[in-house]
Design goal:
Helix content: 55-70%
Mean pLDDT: 79
Shape: elongated
Low-confidence stretches: none
Radius of gyration: 44 Å
Largest sheet: 3 strands, mixed
Structural class: mainly alpha
C-alpha cells in the first residue's frame, strides 16, 4: 500500500508516511459506549460531591450546635440560680462573641447577687445596733420602775438614749429607701444655691458632740471667699453627715478636721482624720452600696 508522505510545514524534510486501512476496526469505542462512560463519570462525580457536602454540613453543624447547646445548658442552670455558670468557647466568630457576652452577663449577675447578700447582712447588722439600744433602755426603765427607784433625771436620760437610737434607726431606713429609689430611677435631685459655710456649721454641733464622746478634737476650717454651689441641700447634708460620721466612728484617738477650700472651678471639702484609713486595694470598692471594709 502506498502511503502519503508527511512533512511539517516549517520543515521540508520528510517525517513519515500516513497509511489508511479501508478495513473496519472493531476494538475502537463507539459513540454509545462513550456516552455511557461520560454519564457514569458524571453520576459518580455527583455522588462524591454530595457525600463531601454532607460531611462538610455535618461537621459544620456540629461546630455550630455544640456551643449553642452548651449555651442553652448554661443558661438553663443560670436561670435555676447557679450563677457560677460560664461557657468555655474561645472562637472569634459570632458564636464566640455570644459566649463572651453570656459570660460577662453571668459575672455581672453573680457580682450583683453577692452585693445584694452583703447589703442584706450589713443592713441587718446596722439595724441591730439601734434596735438593741432601744430594747435595752426600755427594759432598763421597766426594771427600775419595778424597783421604784426611777428618778426624773434617769428617766430623761434613758428616754434621750431611746430617741437617739430611734433617729439612728430612721436614718438607716432612709438610706435603704434612697438606694431603692436610685436603683428604680426615682431619686429626685433638686438643685439650688447652697452656702457650704452655713451647711457645715449646721452639722457642727452634732458632729462635735459625737467627737467629744470619743475624746476627739473636731475642727472646721473654712477658707475665705467660698462661693455658692448648686446642689441638693438635703442630699449634700446627708453625704457630709455620713462621711464625717464614718471619720469619727473609725478614729480612736486624735482629731477629725473638715477643710473647705476653693480653686478657680471647684469647691473642695476634705474630711481629714487620724483613724485607721483605707487600704489602697479597698479604694475601688469602698463606694459600693452598703459596702463596709473590715
Amino acid at each position: 500500500a502506498l502511503g502519503r508522505p508527511l512533512s511539517p510545514p516549517w520543515d521540508g524534510n520528510k517525517s513519515g508516511n500516513l497509511y489508511i486501512d479501508p478495513a473496519p476496526v472493531n476494538n475502537l469505542p463507539g459513540s454509545t459506549s462513550l456516552s455511557q462512560s461520560i454519564d457514569r463519570f458524571i453520576i459518580w462525580g455527583a455522588l462524591l460531591a454530595i457525600a463531601i457536602a454532607l460531611l462538610f454540613t455535618f461537621f459544620l453543624s456540629r461546630r455550630i450546635s455544640a456551643p449553642v447547646k452548651a449555651l442553652t445548658v448554661s443558661a438553663r442552670k443560670l436561670g435555676c440560680g447557679d450563677l457560677s455558670q460560664r461557657v468555655q468557647f474561645k472562637d472569634k466568630s459570632e458564636i464566640g462573641e455570644l459566649a463572651r457576652t453570656f459570660n460577662s452577663m453571668a459575672s455581672d449577675m453573680e457580682r450583683t447577687e453577692r452585693l445584694r447578700r452583703n447589703m442584706i447582712a450589713d443592713v441587718a447588722h446596722e439595724l441591730r445596733t439601734p434596735l438593741t439600744g432601744i430594747m435595752g433602755f426600755a427594759q432598763t426603765i421597766q426594771n427600775v420602775l419595778a424597783r421604784g427607784h426611777l428618778t426624773e433625771e434617769k428617766l430623761a436620760q434613758y428616754l434621750g438614749h431611746i430617741v437617739d437610737s430611734g433617729r439612728h434607726l430612721s436614718a438607716i431606713i432612709d438610706d435603704v429607701l434612697d438606694v431603692a429609689r436610685i436603683e428604680a430611677g426615682r431619686m429626685r435631685i433638686v438643685f439650688e444655691p447652697v452656702l457650704l459655710e452655713e451647711l457645715l456649721f449646721s452639722l457642727r454641733p452634732d458632729m462635735e458632740s459625737q467627737a467629744e464622746e470619743k475624746g476627739l478634737r473636731f475642727d472646721v476650717l473654712l477658707c475665705p471667699d467660698i462661693p455658692e454651689v448648686r446642689a441638693d441641700p438635703k442630699r449634700l447634708t446627708q453625704v457630709l453627715y455620713n462621711l464625717i460620721g464614718n471619720a469619727i466612728k473609725f478614729t480612736e484617738k486624735g482629731s477629725v478636721r473638715i477643710v473647705c477650700e476653693s480653686d478657680k472651678e471647684n469647691v473642695i471639702v476634705r474630711v481629714i482624720d487620724t483613724g485607721i484609713g483605707i487600704k489602697p486595694e479597698d479604694l475601688e470598692v469602698v463606694f459600693e452600696t452598703f459596702r463596709q471594709i473590715d
